[in-house]
Design brief:
The longest helix is centred in the N-terminal third of the chain and has 18 residues, at 2-19. The strands form two sheets. Strands 1, 2, 3, 4, 5, 6, 7, 8, 9 and 12 form a ten-stranded mixed β-sheet that branches. This protein has helices spanning 2-19, 22-32, 41-45, 48-60, 71-79, 91-99, 132-141, 154-165, 182-192, 200-206, 241-251, 254-262, and strands spanning 34-40, 63-69, 85-88, 103-119, 146-148, 175-177, 195-199, 212-217, 223-231, 264-265, 268-269, 272-273. By secondary structure, it is of the alpha/beta class.
Length: 277
């Protein structure tokens, strides 16, 4: 009986010592040094994050785990407390995220633009349109194919906004919603020689593989601003808020803003840094 009690006591002592061992403490510290960033596929596909994050990681000691998905899914992950910080490009969805109490400290980070891509044959006559709204109306009125991401991403939200502004319903025969990221959507549009809307960053990254050209770009209607937002600590106190704050602060720093402006693909600047105090 006494031997059994002694064994149990010894086992408990061993487990207790392990629980507070330097190994487990180090493991916990290592996990706390990871920052989970939910962001759009455009920042990943363009190569921007690969250009920025190594510098931040080296300077800060943090490691950034990137979850690249559509804006809608990124905001959903943030709302569920599955990530520490979020970077997206859909102003209306971001405003709702903050208004609902999930997002705090939204910061305008950078911008580029959306572009309407057209096939060589241009059966809808988009090249003759005087505006992107007219081009969308022409696409719907002709026997053409339009490939939509259909994934609730920032690009998909912008596309639906343009259809609405053009007073066009997306129930025409050639409208094809694929539920894919931007890269796969571009490749599908190219294969089918169809129209599509894309962010400039992903287009430039894939341009060498595509036989599609830009018809409309830039301006107020095709503006594409990006924000970085923290997760409300009162909603999810267990998240790595310290690391998220460090990353947000670094992204708006003069160093990071300069890196954003200087980032190019095939000699073309993809993003313009926009943070203002």
């Amino acid at each position: 009986m006494f031997k059994q009690i002694a064994c149990i006591t010894a086992s408990f002592s061993i487990l207790s010592s392990l629980a507070f061992s330097p190994f487990l403490q180090a493991h916990e510290h290592e996990a706390h040094n990871v920052i989970k960033l939910a962001t759009t596929t455009s920042t990943e596909n363009s190569g921007l994050l690969s250009a920025l994050l190594p510098t931040f990681e080296k300077e800060s000691g943090y490691s950034v785990q990137v979850i690249a998905t559509g804006t809608g899914q990124a905001i959903k992950l943030a709302s569920q407390g599955d990530v520490d910080i979020v970077m997206t490009h859909a102003p209306a969805a971001e405003a709702k995220f903050v208004a609902d109490g999930y997002g705090v400290q939204p910061r305008g980070l950078m911008e580029n633009d959306f572009v309407l891509l057209v096939p060589k044959s241009d059966p809808a006559g988009a090249h003759d349109a005087k505006s992107v709204l007219e081009a969308f109306a022409r696409i719907a009125a002709k026997p053409t194919t339009f490939i939509s991401r259909g994934d609730n991403s920032g690009t998909h939200m912008k596309e639906l906004e343009i259809w609405q502004q053009a007073n066009v319903k997306t129930d025409f025969a050639g409208y094809t919603s694929v539920g894919q990221g931007m890269g796969k959507t571009l490749l599908m549009a190219d294969e089918l020689q169809a129209y599509t809307l894309t962010d400039r960053g992903t287009f430039v990254a894939f341009k060498a593989k595509l036989d599609l050209s830009i018809r409309f770009e830039g301006g107020k209607e095709l503006a594409n601003p990006y924000q970085v937002m923290l997760i409300n600590p009162t909603k999810y106190p267990e998240l790595n808020h310290q690391g998220a704050q460090a990353l947000s602060d670094w992204l708006i720093s003069p160093e990071a803003q300069k890196m954003i402006n200087e980032f190019t693909v095939q000699g073309e600047q993809l993003f313009k840094a926009t943070y203002q105090k």
